[in-house]
Amino acid sequence: MFYSLYISFTDWDYMSSDYSFVGLGNYFDLFGDPLFYGVLWNTLYFSVGVVVPSVFGGLLLALLLVRKQKGMGFYRTLIFSPWVTPAVAVSIVWSWIYEPQVGLANWLLTSFNLPALEWTSSTTWAMPAVIIVTIWKGLGWCMIFYLNALKKVPQSLYEAASLDGASSMQRFLYITLPLISPTTLFLVIITAVDALQAYDQIQVLTQGGPAGSTRTILYMYYQSAFEQFNMGQATAVATVLVILTASLSLLQFILSRKWVHYQ
Amino acid sequence: MAKLFLKKTIKHLFLLLFSFVMVFPFLWMVVSALKTKDEIFHFPPTMWPDSPMWHHFTEAWQLAPFGQYIFNSTFTAVAIVAIQVVNSALIAYAFTHFKFRGKNLLFGIVLLTYMLPAAATYVPSYVILANFNLLDTHTGLILSNAASVLGIFLFRQAFMQIPRELVEAATMDGANHWRILWKVVYPLSKPTFLTFTLISFVQNYNSYLWPTLILNSEEKQLVTTGLRQFFIQEGAYGIQWPLIMAASSFAVIPLLILFAFAQKWFISGISDQGLKG
Lengths: 263, 277
Hints:
The complex is a heterodimer of chains A (263) and B (277).
Chain A: H1 2-7, H2 25-32, H3 34-65, H4 72-84, H5 87-97, H6 104-111, H7 126-151, H8 155-163, H9 168-179, H10 181-196, H11 200-205, H12 217-227, H13 231-258
Helix pairs in contact in A: 2-13, 3-7, 3-10, 4-7, 7-10, 10-13, 12-13
Chain B: H1 2-33, H2 37-40, H3 55-63, H4 66-97, H5 103-115, H6 122-131, H7 138-144, H8 149-160, H9 164-172, H10 177-188, H11 190-206, H12 209-214, H13 223-235, H14 241-270
Helix pairs in contact in B: 1-14, 3-14, 4-7, 4-8, 4-11, 4-13, 8-11, 9-10, 11-14, 13-14
C-alpha cells in the first residue's frame, strides 16, 4: 500500500531500474487530463447503474421469496446461479447475445417492434450493456442477504401493527424497511466497492471502448500499469481509487449512525 | 380465496419467468455450442439446432488444453483455499481468544483492508513477486492469495458465538491452543468453514485479472485466461462461435455442478455474515 503510494510519486516504467522522483507530477497530469474526468464519470455511471438496480431488485425478489412455500428454494437457486460462474466465461456468452446482426438481444427488441441497438459497439449503449451483465451476475447475491434480513424481522411487530390497523404498505414502510436498513447499507457499500473494481466483464465485452465510453477507473489503472508500463501514473490512479473507496466506507460509517436502525 | 389463488399464480408466473431469464444465458451457451455455423448466424435465431453438433465439444477440447487449464484452476484454488482456511482460522482465533494490547486497533486495520480495493496492491505485489522470482509460477499465485480478510472476518463472527466456558474447560484439561482450535472450535463452527471454503474456491477459480498478470506460460494458464485467449484466437470476434460456446461451457459447467450440490451451504451461509454493517 505505502509502496504503491511511493511509486505514484515517481516516473518509473518498470523496465529500467532507475527512475526519478517527480513528486506530485503524476497527480497533476492526471487531474489536468480531460480524459480522466471522462473515466471518473464512467465509473460513477457504472457504479450507480449497477448498485441501484441490484439492491432494489434484490429486495424485491427477497420479498417475493421469503415465505416458505413450494418452489421457493428452486427459484432462489436459479437466480443465484450466475454468481458462481466466471465473469469471463459468461461475458463471452453475453457478447454473443449482444451481437448486433444476429444476437438474441436485438431479436427480442425487434420482435417487440423496437429498434435494434449496436450494443457494445455504440458509445451510448456499451455501458448499459456492461451494466446489464453485471446486474445479472450480482442480483442473486443481494437477494440472499435480504432474505436473511427479512427472516430476522420479528413477526410479533407485524402482528402488533396489524392490530393497530396498519395496512400492508404501512407495515412495509415503517417496520420492514427500517429493520433491514443495516443490510441495505451493507449491500450498497459492498456492491459499490465491487463496481469500482469491475474488470473482467469490461475487458471481454468492450475493452473500455468504444472511444473510452466504458473505461472505468480500474480499467484505466490496468491499462497504464500493464499495457503502457507507466507505473507512476498507474499507482497515482490506484491512489485515487483507494481514496474513493475509503470515502465510501467513511460515508457508510457516518450514515449508519444517522439512518440505520439496529434491533 | 379466489383472489389469493390468483395472486399466488401471478407471483409464481413472474418468478418462473424471471428465473428462466436468469439461467437463459447458460442454456443459450450450451445450445449455441450444438449449432452449425449457419444456424448460429441465422436470423431470427433458431432455438434448437436441427441436428446437435456434439462433436463441437470434443473439437474445442482438443483445440486448446482445457483439461490442463481446468486442472490449473482447480489445483491453485484448492491450495489457496486450504492455506486461507488455516490462516484465517488461526488469526480469527487469536482475535477472539487471546488478550493483547492493540487488539481492536489491529482488527480495525484488518477491516480497513477489506474495504480497500485489492487492485491497488497489484503493482507493488507484482514487483514483490518479481523480486522473489515468483512471476509465472503457481507458487507465486498461491502465496499472493494466502491471506483472506473475508475469512478472518467470517471466522471471527463464528468464533465469538462459541461459549467461553467450553474453551476454558479445554484449557483446564491441558489442551493447547492448536488442539482447542481443531477439536473444540472447529466442530462448533463447521458451517462457517464450509461456506467460506466454497465462496473462496469459487472466487479463486473465477479470478482473472491477477492471474493474467502474473502467469504467462501457456501450460500454467487458468481456465479463465485460457478461455479468453481461445476467444481472441479462434473467434476473431465472430467466426468460430459454436466452438467458443463449447469452450465457455467447459469453464462454467463445473461450477454450476458444484453449486447444484452445495447450494444449501452457499445460500444459508453467506447471509450470516456482516449484517451489522
